[in-house]
Amino acid sequence: MKPVLVVNSGSSSLKYQVIDVDTNDSLISGLIERVSDHTAAFEQMVADLKASGVTPIAIGHRVVHGGSKFSQPAIVDQNVLNAIESLIPLAPLHNPGNLAGIKGAMAAFPGLIQVAVFDTAFHQTMPPAAYRYAIDRELEQKYSIRRYGFHGTSHSYVSKRAAKFLGKPNFTGVVLHLGNGGSACAVLNGRSVNTSMGLTPLQGLVMGTRSGDLDPAIVMYLANQGLSLDEIDQSLNKNAGLMGMTGDADLRDVLRRANQNDAVAREALEVYALRAKQYVGAYLAQLGPIDALVFTAGVGENSSEMRERITDGLEHLGIALDSEKNQIRDKSDRDVSRADSKVKILVIPTNEELEIAIQTAQLAGI
Ligand code: ADP
After folding, report:
1. Is 248 a catalytic site residue?
2. For FRET with 346, which of 19, 134, 144, 216 sits at 20 to 30 Å CA-CA?
3. Catalytic residue among 119, 215, 333, 340
């Protein structure tokens, strides 16, 4: 047995899971909410682990922003801690909680190898044509403005599973990670070559509470109308997307309302699906022929209706959904495309914790 503790320490919550990397089984998991003191939260987690009799041999941490510094996971040392701290301006909501988590774990488990696994790392293979914004070069360089992309751990895990499922050494295709947050990723031979999130997770798809793509001039326009930057930030990140359009952030609620003929909910679903479809088209244009379109995360794995809406009308691109297979509820990796579909349509449950545990074990040499 090789138990690896996976820690996802946010600004106000601590999520943990111990995974045996010999069997990939989850041994114990927990969520501590309303965290104000990370040291106290770690003490509680250590007590929970002790009570369960599980002793981790390495620790993997989810870190949201690795900037351009990290294209791989890293064993935590003082340099890595400094680097994560220096990236706080790019991820003010996430990196401080992640950093507090690493420090809490170092205090709770002195001597154990700690590994930082970055949500941005998988996308560091994007070419400049995909990651650069067409802005003033001076501003771009001075403030490290570029597309970084997120959900990299999930896109990486799902791409490997897809390759395995298809019996190919490497996966080429489009992954739609549709959860509360959402992002699309163009994967060429197992490497990310484009993704829909940008400098921050705000860009791209319509999400639970985030707007995704918009005309950047909307921000200036709202500021000129008298809204403060904080108000605009809150509105676009917390009160936009499905929440902004319908008052409900959870797609299940929006689907239910749409099925009861709620016009507002129906239109929101159309906006959501069209945005996702546009990214599929854009990435097909960039990638050329692909093996598969992959759906993952809460919505992608569970909502046959959204899969149907997003793939509707894509037959001319070789993407044809089998509506019967699409209805089958199953937790395993599966193919929901028609037998004559040139491009496979796969549903692959993501498992970011397992990917963090695997990457941690590899780097720690256990
Ligand atoms: P997170 O991004 O927080 O990790 P998840 O990947 O767990 O989120 O996805 C959460 C979202 O998945 C929720 O907003 C919920 O609407 C959606 N979801 C879960 N199950 C279903 C379902 N059966 N049908 C539609 N949407 C679902």
Report:
1. no
2. 19
3. 119
